[in-house]
Amino acid sequence: MSTIPDTKDSAEASVEQTVGWLSRMLLIRRFEERAEQLTLRGKIPGGVHPAVGQEATAVGVASVLTTADTVSAPHRGHHHALAKGMSPDRLMAELFGKATGVSGGRGGSMHLADFEIGFIGSNGIVGASVGVALGDAFAAHYRHEQRVAVAFFGDGGVNTGRTWEAVNLASAWKLPLVVVCENNLYAVETPTAEVTGGGSIVRRAEGFGVAAVSVDGQDVGEVREAASAAKKRALAGEGPTFIEARTYRYSGHGSGEGPGAYRTVDEIEQWRSSRDPIMRLRAALAKAGQITDDEYARLETEADREVDEAVRFAEESPWPDE
Amino acid sequence: MAELTYRDAVAAAIAQEMERDESVVFIGEDVGAAGGVFKATVGLLEKFGPTRVLDTPISEQAILGVAMGAAMTGMRPIAEIMFSDFFAVSWDLVANEIAKTRYMTNGQVTLPLVIRSGNGGGSRFGAQHSQSVENWAMAIPGLKVVAPSTPRDVMGLFAAAVRDPDPVLFFEHKSLYSLKGEVEDGEILDELGKAATRREGKDVTIVALAAMVPRALAAAEQLASEGVEATVIDLRSLVPLDVSAVAASIASTGHLVTVEENPRLCGWGAELSSIIAEENLFDLDGPIVRVTTPHVPLPAADTLEDAAMPSASRIVEGVRRSLA
Asked: How much is the ipTM here?
């Protein structure tokens, strides 16, 4: 699998890089759609939390990271893992519970980790990912390593105290931490706006003295720009940055849950048809004459092939020893 | 050889490990400038500076987040949770994160960290600052659980805890901080999971931990005057648990009494008793007796707290029941 080219200092990107993001987002989309189907067919035990619709947040942030930079992710974390460069084969095998999975079948969908690529773990407890990244940011700071720790979490984690304990300490100690809140509007099935005092997540973060910005999470370029600025700030010793990425999941909270009664099918269709991150990037590239329909079709075919291969790998892999 | 208090042994143990290994850092509330609320970490900030000895806000979840994340990427942090009761505030970090990460990542990383904490009753601090929670920790797979009873053991077991690849909860007993004891010169390093026999006797085996060890010894003294010779075993750690030391002693005495400060239900003595009953039943010549704090929150009043915690006389009474 190709890796996304690193760009350390600048948000400027080449055509090749931009096409690379499109291709990675397509891979995530196809992977997540397939994983949900396989859950329903009983191939993946325990279910998954699909990130269909949220591809740009993960890919935009990962596009400014090197292998030395780390990512810590929440329960909905396949997209972060794939964006950071996790092998789709070993990810799928982990979902199947096979010995060849990234965690040898002992982790499962919510406990992915591959330390060789700087993916230091996804986590089943809401808010926990921020604490783990806080510690890694401390380690980077203590050892004078020029790298950042990124914590993804969701809007559900905005109302748990531990998130802010971590943001506060990172701010007080000026640690190289980037906290990315993927606000997909719903904490499981509860509209976050209805249970969040003060309304603005970014204003909360500002209260802890950290740079805070809200971006369109369906625009990979905008996410990337914010991540690039955050990384620069962290490496300059200016401390953490908080990014709210406004995004949306097309699937239910968990696999097979359908649209649910907490939102309308219309709302989902609105996001899909007018703000889809893949569609938007494709359109932007096409408008600039940087991708043809044929080239895009080839990217789709390649994503399908990679996912087919991942499923085959998972199917054929052995079960873990008991 | 020097005489140290249990409290000074804590600072000396931390210093020994920080001098030896640059990747060891020490974080917690009031641990640096204040020298710890129990004054067990006095001098460390001056000695190692603010990059290695860090005062934190009252944010137990952030403290343990720092320790966990740093341990996962190659450091050996020591974190303090001021009173062990406050583990409840950060139990997710302990039980769901720190304890499980090595397993869940299929061994990609270990978490070489120590969480030290003031544990136990006898200080009249009331129900939220007096608990013995070592049995909470014992119930979570993935943690090691250590509780020293002497200044010397503080040194040796702490060094072992810091050098262990896995997370260790290190319970210091608040009522032992003023206890004095001989500590040999030079580096002290013990092995986790080795019990110590504090007194040899042929009639009964009394097994105790931390502050219950001196009480068990006082009980043994009293029993000796009645002609009953007790062995007193100090477990020193609950995980690993030195079952073989207890089993070997039972094989000769035929009687087991556990002395636990934790509340009765699911205390560590229940686990030990069940192992002995399953594996060594026919070595026993009488019932296993557990002397524990009853299943109540600890009261603040002197008389009430003293009545709740196992005393030498209750231990003596327990031994008599086992021998009856």
From this structure: 0.94
